[in-house]
Amino acid sequence: MEATLASTLSQLKSPFQSLSSKLWPSVSLTSRESKRKTIRYAPATVSLPASRIRLRVFANSQSAPASAVTSEVSSVPLEMKAWVYGEYGGVDVLKFDSSVSVPEVKEDQVLIKVVAAALNPVDAKRRQGKFKATDSPLPTVPGYDVAGVVVKVGSQVKELKEGDEVYGNINEKALDGPKQFGSLAEYTAVEEKLLALKPKNIDFVQAAGLPLAIETAYEGLVRTNFSAGKSILVLNGTGGVGSLVIQIAKHVFGASIVAATSSTGKLEFLKSLGVDLAIDYTKENIEDLAEKFDVVYDAIGQCDKAVKVVKEGGRVVVLTGAVTEPGFRFVVTSDGAVLKKLNPFLESGKVKPIVDPKGPFPFSKVAEAFSYVESSRATGKVVIHPIP
Predict the structure, then answer these.
(1) Which burial class, exposed, middle or buried, applies to 313 when counting CB atoms under 10 A from its CB (0-12, 13-18, 19+)?
(2) Domain count of the chain?
(3) Residues 265, 234 share a domain
(4) How far from 377 is each of 124, 126, 142, 283, 360, CA to CA, in Å?
(5) Is 20 part of a structural domain of the chain?
(6) Would you tell me how many other CB atoms lie within 10 Å of the CB of residue 179?
(7) What is the pLDDT of residues 266-310, one digit of tens each?
(8) Is omega for the bond preceding 386 within 30 degrees of 0, making it cis?
(9) 310 - beta bridge partners?
(10) Which end of the chain is more exposed for a tag (fewer CB within 10 A), N or C?
(11) Is the pTM of this model over 0.85?
(12) In whole angstroms, what is the distance from residue 316 CA to residue 176 CA?
């Protein structure tokens, strides 16, 4: 098999490089043959006989496929379909590519066949080059949130196995060296410690919309020492993070009062999440509220207003925009242990995933989905599904 594989790779190399040099000469990704070499790739598809693709089937499979999704991914090809950008900019820099190398799996990682992925504001800011100084090298396959099926495990993986249905935020540090190969692709490689088993009562679309937002919501509250009996005001309560802060504050921490802001048309949605005081920001100024809160969770970028309605000694969590004391900037650290801790609340139905009703967006509409996220009009999370 090794001789046949070497021959196949040799035959592939020449036409593949020839195509890419004509169509996209400036973009390269890490080669599967060596991390010190690169191969050029192009938006064109390089056709391979099925027999050659299956030479990459992993011989150390631990279990037979356990579901319909798993049965479709029992073999892993050399290349995959993915969305890629080779320069920073607007949505127009996003390109669909059908011949991106499937990422290598490190000892502590698993390879996931992606079933659904979700977009976050940080995906857009990263693509725009807002933190290029700490970003991974271009070209980039974007995407933080993933839900899918494990198809290969590294040698140091202890709990997960092939066939497991998992979800997670694939980047431990949101702004510091996020992965070059993200979740907007057929496959992605992720450290085991960043993942959890998908709750049994929700589907892949719902699961994909949770990780980054629910980790941000929970960890932000922990940073404020939030506890039972305390009050909270959530700015932008209908967003991906805000809608989960409301639920977690009330049902996980036991908040005494949960208030949140939204536009007029979304007030009933806030109440359905358990909000005690729904505030229409188009008609009311939060600075004028008689009530003061132990914590204000600013998920929209209005810290200057938030600090005026926090109690003395209270805390203001700031996700975006300028920071005014006692506000503090919060950037999430991905941790699968948080997902495991919250899984019982998801499985009991006390905390519900919120997927924007315009979605899920098909894989072919990733650029349109990004434009929608960047319009700040989404309710809950914008999810991409199905992924080929």
Answers:
(1) exposed
(2) 2
(3) yes
(4) 14, 19, 21, 18, 15
(5) no
(6) 20
(7) 999 999 999 999 999 999 999 999 999 999 999 999 999 999 999
(8) yes
(9) 293
(10) N
(11) no
(12) 23
